[in-house]
């Protein structure tokens, strides 16, 4: 599309890779914009144009993740998701078809070029401060305290029997262990623990599979899309929850189209019945199993099977099969409450809508907010109370968020961007408030269409 070396030319055949040593063809943004279709996607990284149409299916992060940046400048996303850039560039070289014309800006549209420049300078400063280097002892302690809780829960039942009191304590301890395992596998999925990506992936399979019973590949498939395009419909799986819940702009759309599947003006109430209690127990379990079977992730399936084998072999002797199953359900319900409230307190109250093609920093800041830190909140939330810093720098080890936070806050102040920090309880209440607001918008659109 667009003749090679002919900026603004008529659409033509698919471009082949640029020849080594030959001058690179140049393209204008108006040409690149048209290449955002299934089977025909270009993107721009560091002013170079790549045709990812055929290669996207082999992208380690999934075709959807890289496809969400079709026809865009993906430079900052490229830096955010990858540890070893020189290694990844080897895979990009065969896809190179040209570069932006000299007169073209590095970003398309009305993006703030100075903000982009300042954000990249901030990232370089963080690298110079060695904020992307992990402390092994920190993560070793996290894994250690998870394993201790797993053993402690079993010891309660072994020593005191399967009565109500020890069973309740065991369920609470196991739920905390499961919640902390979510956090640790999240760190590993973002390759923020070990220097080598392969070590992170192997450790994530152990934590996600053996300690939780889920697929690491399924989680990464969902979660990386969320980071690439947070709170964007049809790109972020976390907000594609219609018709059960309506969020942001979807409230107006469903109201105008007379789509009345549920009483959405009461969604802030039925949220308590089908949101926190059931997400991990029902939705995640079904989606996770379907992903492993459809995508033939047999290694992940074996890891997940090892979790269920260990759990039921540990507790069936005390409770019988039915009792052990009830204990499992109790643990999943408790951890599901933790998962929903902690992960959504930073996102649902923020802007949720359709793609606006913002620069990396603006898109992440529009979809995230922070929660006031403390030793307890940092631990309890897995440092996801620093959601702004985490979204801007997803591969940064979480113990360094507090160090980069002042730099991010200064950047926001310079460019008039919101750097929102809430008290913990306020952040939780805001989830319900945002659901009620969206439901009221739906009702108004429904009644006045």
Automatic annotation (TrEMBL):
Residues 24-101 form the Cytochrome b5 heme-binding domain. SMART domains: Cyt-b5. The keyword Translocase does not apply. One of its GO terms (biological process) is unsaturated fatty acid biosynthetic process. The keyword Cytoplasm does not apply. It is a multi-pass membrane protein. Residues 1-11 have a biased composition (Gly residues). It is found in: Endoplasmic reticulum membrane. The chain crosses the membrane at residues 137-157, 269-292, 312-334. InterPro entries: Cyt_B5-like_heme/steroid-bd, Cyt_B5-like_heme/steroid_sf, FA_desaturase_dom, Fatty_acid_desaturase. One of its GO terms (cellular component) is endoplasmic reticulum membrane. SUPFAM superfamilies: Cytochrome b5-like heme/steroid binding domain. Keywords: Fatty acid biosynthesis, Fatty acid metabolism, Lipid biosynthesis, Lipid metabolism, Membrane, Transmembrane, Transmembrane helix. Residues 1-22 are annotated as: Disordered. CDD domains: Delta6-FADS-like. GO terms for molecular function: oxidoreductase activity, acting on paired donors, with oxidation of a pair of donors resulting in the reduction of molecular oxygen to two molecules of water. Pathway: Lipid metabolism; polyunsaturated fatty acid biosynthesis. It holds the Pfam family Cyt-b5. This is Fatty acid desaturase 3 isoform X2. It comes from Hipposideros armiger (Great Himalayan leaf-nosed bat). The gene is FADS3.
């Amino acid at each position: 599309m667009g003749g090679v070396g002919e900026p603004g030319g008529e659409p033509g055949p698919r471009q082949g890779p640029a020849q080594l040593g030959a001058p690179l063809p140049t393209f204008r943004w108006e040409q690149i914009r048209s290449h955002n279709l299934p089977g025909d996607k270009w993107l721009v990284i560091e002013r170079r144009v790549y045709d990812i149409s055929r290669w996207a299916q082999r992208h380690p992060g999934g075709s959807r993740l890289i496809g969400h940046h079709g026809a865009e400048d993906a430079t900052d996303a490229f830096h955010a998701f990858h540890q070893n850039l020189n290694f990844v560039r080897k895979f990009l070289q065969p896809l190179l078809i040209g570069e932006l014309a000299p007169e073209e800006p590095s970003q398309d549209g009305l993006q703030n070029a100075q903000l982009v420049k300042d954000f990249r300078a901030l990232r370089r400063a963080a690298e110079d401060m060695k904020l992307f280097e992990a402390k092994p002892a920190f993560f070793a302690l996290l894994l250690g305290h998870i394993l201790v809780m797993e053993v402690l829960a079993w010891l309660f039942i072994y020593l005191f029997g399967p009565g109500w009191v020890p069973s309740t304590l065991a369920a609470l301890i196991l739920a905390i262990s499961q919640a902390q395992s979510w956090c640790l596998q999240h760190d590993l999925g973002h390759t923020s623990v070990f220097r080598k990506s392969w070590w992170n992936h192997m450790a994530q399979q152990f934590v996600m599979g053996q300690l939780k019973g889920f697929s690491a590949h399924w989680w990464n498939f969902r979660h990386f899309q969320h980071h690439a395009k947070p709170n964007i419909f049809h790109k972020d799986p976390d907000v594609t929850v219609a018709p059960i819940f309506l969020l942001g702009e979807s409230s107006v759309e469903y109201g105008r189209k007379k789509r009345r599947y549920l009483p959405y003006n009461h969604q802030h109430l039925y949220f308590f019945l089908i949101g926190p209690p059931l997400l991990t127990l029902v939705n995640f379990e079904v989606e996770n199993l379907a992903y492993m079977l459809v995508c033939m992730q047999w290694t992940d399936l074996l890891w997940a099977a090892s979790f269920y084998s260990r759990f039921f072999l540990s507790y069936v002797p005390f409770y019988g099969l039915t009792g052990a199953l009830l204990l499992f359900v109790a643990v999943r319900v408790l951890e599901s409450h933790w998962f929903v409230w902690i992960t959504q307190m930073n996102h649902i109250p923020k802007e949720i809508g359709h793609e606006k093609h913002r620069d990396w920093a603006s898109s992440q800041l529009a979809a995230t907010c922070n929660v006031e830190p403390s030793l307890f909140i940092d631990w309890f939330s897995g440092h996801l109370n620093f959601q702004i810093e985490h979204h801007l720098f997803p591969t940064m080890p979480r113990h360094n968020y507090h160090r980069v936070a002042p730099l991010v806050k200064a950047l926001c102040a310079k460019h008039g961007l919101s750097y929102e920090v809430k008290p913990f309880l306020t952040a939780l209440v805001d989830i319900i408030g945002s659901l009620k607001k969206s439901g009221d918008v739906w009702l108004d659109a429904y009644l006045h269409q």
